[in-house]
Write a structure and sequence with these properties.
4 copies of one chain form a homotetramer. Chain A has a single domain, classed as Orthogonal Bundle (Tetracycline Repressor, domain 2). Chain A is built from 9 helices and no strands. In chain A, helix 2 packs across helix 3 and helix 4 crosses helix 6. Chains in contact: A-B, C-D. The structure holds a DNA duplex.
DNA sequence: TATGAATGAGTCTTCATTCAT
DNA sequence: TATGAATGAAGACTCATTCAT
């Protein structure tokens, strides 16, 4: 719900597309199809059909197919970054901060933006190089938040490993949950967050 | 080194292709290109050029492009399974066994078969459904080895989480190393193995 | 002339394609090329060139090459059937009815639809099996008209042979005319019709 | 049986290939496959497989695929011509002569050489133009036998039509039997011969 | 003579993109 | 802005033919 608040803000400020607009609908459809079938196996016609328009009309909203993939990823990048900032600002202890890192990423992978988040990771190579660079620049702030939080955790002695290494191991563990975690299974998202947190931080506090 | 021994055995027994043969060379090239550019963006001509033949000749060795992707994945599946069996048979303590699980997977992701292993994970959806099923059948044994080892670890009290959940988290952490770990960086593979092991197992023994 | 009337009706009712539309033009070209060079030796590019479009555009009108062959044949099937119904309805004596059978078929083989009719006979094996079945179903009515007319002729004693056998012999004789009969030669179509009729029916009445 | 006698003579004299030799076996297989699948859809590999050799070996026996088709047709041409000569030489009355024309052709269409005969008619356009001319030259004698016999029949008043026209109509009726006549059906070949003869000749004599 | 891997031109088909309406 | 026919480059795959062994 707070997430929704944030998303509304981002829409209103024009940072991400309103899913009620044609452009927004297209991006939602693209995220879904790119996840299901992969970018290359999704045709522009598929995309158009999914939103009930004809293929030619897509190019009134996006210069080309590549730009659609970019937009899908870019909006996730922006939203993840903003959401993490909010989350971290509410966390007081270092423990809570690390939990915020993990929880935020899990939210994106299993929440409303799951498709786009998945696409960002698994269709990376389908993106043209120049767009890849733009995305990487966009993610810089996000990674710095992770980095500095992990550094802090290291200084406070709650993690037992090089912060950089741990960060990457956690990223991997989290992203991979998209392949096996079912929100209707035994584990709640909150419990899953705790499990991953327990990998990162000595068991004193979970 | 022992790995090489095993691979030779597998080649001799016909389970995987000899990289000296045309078929084997094709598979090596395919793994590399599929990793670099993705399956869809790799053309049959690319593949042929890489091994110095013409595109038509590829179809003397494989029925179609799909079969090449399958073969790349399938040989990894076989080799990973065999290698893990050997590794586990040499491990005495539960600690060593879990380390074997991790070390084996890291070996495949960063060793000679890194390309093919990467392809198996990241080009999964490019594989036709019937081949996906074959691969999944082929991996069943491998996953059982993980599962039973993790179960044992749980019974012996060295892991603090549902074995199934931990298994998946470790898989994710390990696979993701393909994106960031450089063998010529600060961390040796052995050290990386220890780092991951330390996530899994209480710090009494590493 | 009446034939033209009928064809217009069929076009208007959507049963066969208007030769003014792209689809219709393609079908006319296909019939011609398939007759001249055979289905297999006619490339999609040949076809496109003939109607002045590019090869890719063909697939806006037909799913694949096979469907083009089917459409060529199917439109002949429909038109032959309709034309025969009209002809028979105007025939009073049994003699006239048998003449109608023959004349109708000769019209198709030597009239405007000669190419398509030829293709239907001589490219039959090039058609995929499922399409063959559809065509055969479509021809059932036509053959029944022949059959029942021949049966009637037999009952009335004007033919001296098993109706089934005679029907087939006449079909063969008629179809083969596509190889030798020239409308600008010694024989008019009407005379040719009489010749064939004289094979079928005792010379009392022609 | 007499037919077999003749074929042996032709083999011995080198006019047609011995089906025991590789070349002969190839021609038998080619006739069969060309009939079943059509020339274009029959691959050289299919052919090789059918006779138990490998594709490359075919070119020790024939310069190219085209030559195989030519050879199939050419041997039929030769055999039909020789067989007709023999048959005609045994016929005394004009009636018997016309029957010989018909019977001979039916023999080839439904006898041992049925495949090759079928191919000669239905794969004509698949043959290169220069070979077509050779075949047509080879058939000239055969057609002259038909022509002169028909002319004679006309002079004797047993046929009621231009000999040329009747000849073609009979050819068509006869060839078409390949599509419907079954030797295990109601009609024997001899009866079928009579039916066709009755089309040609006034019913005084069958 | 037989082999069979390799050739390379040629086939059908796909699809992102354009553009006149 | 939407349409959808047309584009044309590119793709996977086929196959008659060659040739070193």
């Amino acid at each position: 719900m707070e997430e929704n608040q944030l998303i509304k803000q981002l829409i209103d400020s024009g940072k991400i597309s309103d899913p009620e607009t044609p452009r927004g609908r297209l991006l939602v459809a693209a995220a879904q199809l790119f996840k299901e079938k992969g970018y290359n196996r999704t045709t522009v016609r598929d995309l158009a059909a999914q939103v009930g328009i004809l293929s030619g009309s897509i190019f009134h909203h996006f210069k080309n197919k590549d730009e659609i993939l970019f937009a899908v990823m870019n909006e996730v990048v922006i939203a993840m970054d903003e959401a993490l900032k909010v989350s971290l600002s509410k966390a007081n202890t270092i423990n809570d901060k690390v939990r915020a890192l993990i929880a935020n990423e899990l939210d994106f992978i299993h929440g409303k933006t799951s498709n786009a988040t998945y696409v960002m990771v698994y269709e990376w190579r389908a993106l043209s190089e120049s767009y890849q660079q733009q995305i990487m620049q966009g993610r810089a702030g996000y990674f710095e938040l992770w980095q500095s939080t992990m550094d802090e955790a290291r200084r406070e002695g709650v993690i037992a490993m090089e912060p950089d290494c741990l960060r990457q191991l956690l990223h991997g563990a989290i992203i991979w949950t998209s392949h096996w975690y079912k929100s209707d299974g035994k584990l709640t998202i909150r419990q899953l967050t705790n499990r991953i947190l327990s990998l990162a931080i000595k068991p004193s506090s979970n």
